[in-house]
Design goal:
The complex is a heterodimer of chains A (about 120) and B (about 110). In chain A, strands 2, 4, 5, 6, 9, 10 and 11 form a 7-stranded mixed sheet that branches. A 4-stranded antiparallel sheet of chain A has the order 1-3-8-7, with no helix packed on it. With about 120 residues, chain A is an all-beta fold. Chain A has strands at about 5, 10-15, 20-25, 30-40, 45-50, 55-60, 65-75, 75-80, 90-100, 105-110, 110-115. Chain B has strands at about 5, 10-15, 20, 25, 35-40, 45-50, 55-60, 60-65, 75, 85-95, 100-105, 110-114. Classes of the chains: A mainly beta (about 120), B mainly beta (about 110).
Chain lengths: ~120, ~110
């Protein structure tokens, strides 16, 4: 069954509004979650690392005031796209890291398609 | 920096054909290597992985061998099925600024025709 869920699966919003995307870890508590962005026919670009109980770590070039990340519990992280513009239209994917033995593995959510009109 | 390069797609094959999707990487240290698959409308799923040189990852008939000498991790399958149609991503783990992160290739879209 699914390990990671995202909500909503797709959303259309008007330019200037804000949109919140939820990422839930269903099977285990995740101290670390990741947010990626995927443009059409392109690879995933890591936007930020979300750490439970602390501030997210953003990748170079990602505006932290525009893409607000909150990881308030061990099973939920949210990404809020503030004052959305058409260029923010994309596929947003979250993943959770699970510790396995001495290593770890990432499980990905099904993604959220955002269209800003 | 660390990077992954995949063969450009799209790749179109007939059912039961042999599949190879090339992947090469640039990395410092000893990264773990992965292949992820993304079926239409779904998120990425781990297909297989290898954590050290000469390791072979395998799953669902797919195989890939970690070749340190050629910095490659090519994906192969002897006989593809229509259900294998998807986008395939090669990836490696990289320690960036003290944190472990996945670095993805650009993805290769595979279409299998009956």
């Amino acid at each position: 069954g699914a390990v990671v869920s995202q909500h909503p699966s797709w959303v259309i919003c008007k330019s200037g509004t804000s949109v919140k995307i939820e990422c839930r870890s269903l099977d285990f508590q995740a101290t670390t979650m990741f947010w990626y962005r995927q443009f059409p026919k392109q690879s995933l670009m890591l936007m930020a690392t979300s750490n439970e109980g602390s501030k997210a770590t953003y990748e170079q070039g990602v505006e932290k005031d525009k893409f607000l990340i909150n990881h308030a519990s061990l099973t939920l992280s949210t990404l809020t796209v503030t004052s959305a513009h058409p260029e923010d239209s994309s596929f947003y994917i979250c993943s959770v890291r699970k510790l396995i033995g001495t290593g770890n593995e990432q499980y990905f959510g099904p993604g959220t398609r955002l269209t800003v009109t | 920096g660390n990077s992954v390069t995949q063969m450009e797609g799209p790749v179109t094959l007939s059912e039961e054909a042999f599949l190879t999707i090339n992947c090469t990487y640039t990395a410092t240290g000893y990264p773990s290597l992965f292949w992820y698959v993304q079926y239409p409308g779904e998120g990425l799923q781990l297909l297989l992985k290898a954590t050290k040189a000469d390791d072979k990852g395998s799953n669902k008939g797919f195989e890939a061998t970690y070749r340190k000498e050629t910095t490659s991790f090519h994906l192969e399958k002897g006989s593809v099925q229509v259900s294998d149609s998807a986008v395939y991503f090669c990836a490696l783990t990289s320690i960036i600024q003290g944190a472990q992160k996945l670095v993805f290739g650009q993805g290769t879209r595979l279409t299998i025709n009956p």
